[in-house]
Amino acid sequence: MPTQPVSSSNQPSRLFSLNSSNLVPLVLVLLLLHLALWSFFTGISHRAPDWDNMEELVWASGLEWGYYKHPPLPSWILYGLVSIFGRPVWLTFFTGQLSVVLTLWIVWKFGCEITTQSRALIATLLVSVIAYFTVRGVMNNHNTMQLWSVAGAIWMFYRATRTDSMKAWAALGFFCGCAFLTKYSALIQFATFALYLLITGGLLRAKTWKGIALATAILIAMVTPHLLWLKQQAAGPIAYAGNEMIPQATYWLEVQDLFSFLLTNLGRIAALILAVLVVAFWAGRQYKLTPKSARPPTIASELAASDRFFLLFVGLTPLLITMLVAGAFKIPLAAHWATTFFVLFGFFSFWFLKSGNDAALLRKTIIVVIVIQVLGAAGYGLARGPLADKSGRASRATFPGAEVSRQVHAQWNAHMQTPLTLVASDTWLGGNIATHIGPQVQVLIDGDFHKSPWVNEEKAEKCGMLVAINRSKINPDQVDIDAIALMAQTTEHGTLEIPWTKKAGGPTVVVEWGIIPPQPSCKDVKDAK
């Protein structure tokens, strides 16, 4: 392994100095600033969360072994946070960014094992400007929530293959279990690890197989309850995934889809590319008068050859596997499925950045990244919130969820003497109504008890519910036949029309509401499922 250059990080200095021998305080401050920045601007600018965020809030009504679209871990995490903070809009943005900053911390810790602390921080900061860590990092969905477990699995896989540590193999099993319990796409990462061991000869070593056995045992122990639950589902996550991956009609359509997938993701890592170019140009100005033969080598050239291979192989293979499999089977790809594929891309800057004064290079990186982050967070919040509201652009962010909830709740109170505890509606509208009334109100998604296992079916049928259907002309949500059937059972019925934005004469939210009143036998129904 090549000798690491003497870094300024070996010189003791002030607590937050770039020359400090311990950069942990600085890293923590930068990550907390990232968390606060994106949580704050989205929290104050959005009247309602993104669709995926609302879905997680609704699912967090109960602890289940699985949900009708995905495995359970992200909903479990949000369930715990909701139990503490309630269901405010900002919580979902905060939770998404909590996953992001935990991921960045893990990326930095991994980087410290292949290079110096300051260089690892440079790579971490650069990857933090990728869209999946910023504007899409506030989306509390299963892609964002899988980031930290995939990063942890990569870190522990590296350590396990370098040290044969059984603790590292055990931790690898834990992170892989968390990744699988978040989204089944974790299998792509598992395949990457297997290919790496095959190509590097790791599978020829007895110690590797002992480690694999330990990691696999932990993985199986973690996911078995979910798999048993999954086996009982006639139409669960597997069916949902199948519907999302219906093959294209022709290979030409698939080629077009792959090109769109790549182009969209190129746009989502554009901020990283820009940041690397700016930092490289800024840092390179000092070498203009230096003869080329005397200029320092790239940072990558000072890494061990095995580490360079690890970064390139583990960093790129998930993307390549996904595209090859999709291309072979004509599977359409959604761009956001690549969310976890870029966690190591910050280290690719090492092939462009020069070795030398690490503290100076880190200082330039911090400045560039902070500028990009502040402009990005403020611009995103402003565009999605006040500007969209004043221009009359109907969107999830400008949806008047609190007012919709207030008015439909008023209709319930005007006709019923009992508190409202159940709303039958689509996830988005029902979630907006329920979250603003209080934690006692649950959502019967699309009027479907299979999609809402936290709802006591007997109690729902005997104790009544509010039924709500979004009839807005702009961005109407799909109306399920079960919700229509429930609306036909209502005894009280009406329609509300509420301004969507603050623009006079702008779009409106149209909500059809109905009430299924409680039966006298309601008081005899127990709350248990």
Short overview:
By secondary structure, the protein is mainly alpha-helical. It has 19 helices and 5 strands.
Structural overview:
With 529 residues, the protein is mostly helical. The protein has helices spanning 24-45, 51-59, 73-85, 89-111, 117-127, 142-145, 147-163, 166-180, 186-200, 206-231, 237-244, 251-268, 270-284, 305-329, 358-391, 401-415, 427-437, 457-463, 481-488, and strands at residues 422-425, 442-445, 465-470, 492-499, 508-516. Helix 4 (89-111) runs antiparallel to helix 5, helix 9 (186-200) crosses helix 14 and helix 13 packs antiparallel against helix 15 (358-391). It starts with 23 loop residues before the first helix and ends in a 13-residue tail after the last strand. The relative contact order is 0.11.
First-last Cα distance:
60 Å
The parts where pLDDT drops under 50 for at least 5 residues are: 1-12
Approximately what portion of the residues adopt beta-strand conformation?
5-15%
Main sheet specs: 5 strands, mixed
Secondary-structure content class: mainly alpha
Percent helix, as a range, is: 55-70%
- Which quaternary structure do these chains form? single chain
